[in-house]
Every structure is written in C-alpha cells, then in structure tokens.
Amino acid sequence: MELRETKNVETYTLSSIILNDKNLFGKFAQEAYSVTDYICKDYPNHFEWYWTKEIPRVFNGTGEIIICTINDNIAGVTFLKKDELEKKICTFLVVEKYRRKHVATELLEKAFKYLGTTKPLITIADNKFKMFENIIKKYDWKLTQTLSKGYYNNTSCELVYNGKLSKK
Q1: Which residue, among 82, 64, 93, 88, has the nearest Cα to 161 in the 3D structure?
Q2: What is the pTM of this model?
Q3: Is beta strand 87-94 parallel, antiparallel or unpaired with respect to 121-125?
Q4: How far is CA 99 from CA 76, 95, 103, in A?
Q5: Are 143 and 161 in contact (CB under 8 A)?
Q6: H/E element holding 123?
Q7: Are strands 87-94 and 9-13 parallel, antiparallel or unpaired?
Q8: Residue 92 and residue 125: Cα distance in Å, rounded?
C-alpha cells in the first residue's frame, strides 16, 4: 500500500500546532520523543538533547519537528535544525510498520521545504547505512566526512553527508 493511497494521512509541524492547540502540541511533542526513544542506545544523550535543544528550537524558530501520521498513528518523524551555521536533519525515523509506504519521501519533501535545500547536513551511523542507502542515492547526497567512534557513541562511526560537523 502506498502512502498516497492510504486513508487519513496527515503531516504536522510542531511550530504550527503551538499556535493552534497547546494540548495537541504537548501530545505530539511527547509522541515524537516516544517513537525515537529507542535510539538512546546509539545516541546516549538523546533524551536530554530532545527536551533541552530540539523542543526549544521549535519555540525560537531555529528548528522544526515534522510528524507524519496514518490513521492517527505516528508513521514517521524528522527533527530539523536551521540556523545561520547549519541546515540539518538531526533525526529521521520512519516507524517500521510504515516503511516502504512513501512516508520517508513525504517527510523529506517537507524537510527540504523547511530547510530550503535538498542537500541538508545529515549524519548516519555507519551500522545504519543500509537503511538509508536508497535515500542517499535518490537525493544524490555526498559523503563529506567520517567521524570516528566516540563522537556520539563508542560503537559506531558517523557518516556525514552534504557538509562537515565540527568536533564537539
């Protein structure tokens, strides 16, 4: 089943929800974190980063969270950063049962529009490269840097596309 044929598909941005429904904002902010919580094993500081960096970016206009739902279930999320130094996809996730239904394309198209580029900075753990290989090829992203183990965790290197990250 393709996304465009699925009923009740919605895409939300947290910045627009803040303006319209603060209760819905809280619900979606929590759900966006919950579907990404498992990445704490790859990114040990994910919890603190999300609540102290990503959510404040939505409020101050230097970031966005885009959520795609299907039949009121979160199908995918992307967390974005857009400031004078970076146009970055910080987190990108399609929930497993919604993969291969064009959710990734829907999220990326919205992300590109927000960021103003189809070549945003993005890092991908080397052990997850296969999951992203088709996206990398489709959008012709270029590997520009490889960060050694220890940048985010001690188990994987980070592959950087479309730009460079400075050392922490």
Answers
A1: 88
A2: 0.88
A3: parallel
A4: 9, 7, 7
A5: yes
A6: strand 121-125
A7: unpaired
A8: 12
Q: pLDDT for 15-39, tens place per residue? A: 888 777 888 888 889 999 999 988 8
Name beta bridge partners: 24: none
Distance CA 80, CA 108 (A): 11
**Which tens digits make up the pLDDT trace of 49-71?**
999 999 999 999 999 999 999 98
Pairing outcome for strands 73-82 and 87-94? antiparallel
* 22: helix, strand or coil: helix
